[in-house]
Design a protein that fits this description.
Blueprint (H helix, E strand, L loop, with lengths): L18 H11 L5 H5 L8 H29 L2 H25 L3 H16 L8 H4 L9 H7 L7 E4 L3 E4 H12 L9 H17 L12 H17 L23 H20 L1
Antiparallel strand pairs: 1-2
Length: about 280
């Protein structure tokens, strides 16, 4: 549920047989959206009423279950160990980045991600140490949601998923492929796979405890807007768009520099000065 704050972590695989019943209960317990919500509706969030109900459920789950565990994990875990755990899961995510880079036509980024995985998996003792970054080998994180954007699905509606949190219809469509591209999915031992998934979740949440203090005002809208801006930034590979003031095609109109504007201003100043001197 905190994906908007940290995209270095891999997608978490949650499964619940009671999810349909949970969604029915959430929908039945909520009323209609308020008039103010309708007036201030975000065009990227046409399902805000439903999303807020799911957000409220995720928030309660986090407040009474995940967040306390994350605080305990941070308290008892030495910083070097916590860093190593984060490096380990981030290294596994390089596989997904390499695959999506190929699908997006970015061979250079795919090569960097592959190099990072091989270096950190060997010299870095299974990814616990991030030697690739020390060697200045870095790659842009890529996932299937970004791949779908490159393929033409640029704009997408905001959607809050139970357990997973902020997403879009496009990113949700790519979620099964993200899970399939994550190595932990193929661990045959159920105990080991579930333990690794839980550790990844707790470590991710612990890393967001400090950033949570940045939230101001309406928590739902703050997280929604931050997530959408973050995803747009990632889809565009960090490009913020054209700056008209930095573009050679930006033209000023002669009227913008009309001398009469300055003359009127000077005349007004003289009149004021004359009156003051007379006094």
């Amino acid at each position: 549920m905190w994906q908007w704050l940290s995209n270095d972590k891999t997608t978490l695989s949650w499964r619940s047989k009671g999810l349909p019943l949970l969604l029915v209960a959430l929908l039945a317990s909520g009323g209609c959206a308020s008039t103010q919500m309708a007036e201030n509706a975000n065009p990227d969030d046409p399902w805000e009423g439903f999303n807020r109900k799911v957000f409220a459920f995720n928030d309660v789950l986090d407040r009474y279950a995940l967040k306390p565990v994350a605080k305990g994990y941070r308290t008892i875990t030495p910083d070097p160990v916590e860093t190593g755990v984060g490096n380990f899961f981030s290294n596994l995510g390089e596989v997904r980045t390499a695959l999506n880079s190929v699908l997006q036509g970015k061979p250079a980024n795919a090569g960097l991600a592959t190099s990072r995985f091989l270096i950190n998996s060997t010299v870095g003792i299974g990814g616990l140490l991030d030697y690739a970054t020390l060697m200045e080998i870095t790659a842009d994180k890529e996932d299937f949601g970004q791949t779908l954007a490159v393929w033409g699905w640029d704009d997408s509606r905001y959607l809050v998923l139970p357990f997973f949190g902020p997403s879009t219809l496009r990113d949700t469509t790519g979620l099964p492929a993200d899970i399939a591209a994550y190595p932990v999915t193929y661990v045959e031992d159920d105990t080991v796979r579930i333990s690794l998934t839980a550790l990844n979740l707790i470590d991710t949440r612990a890393g967001l405890l400090d950033q949570e203090e940045l939230i101001r005002g309406d928590r739902y809208r703050f997280i929604r807007d931050a997530y959408l801006q973050s995803r747009q930034f990632e889809v565009r590979d960090g490009e913020l768009g054209d700056d008209p003031f930095a573009s050679d095609t930006f033209d000023f109109d002669d009227s913008d520099f009309d001398d009469s504007n300055f003359e009127d201003s000077d005349t007004g100043d003289d009149d004021v000065g004359g009156e003051n001197s007379a006094d």
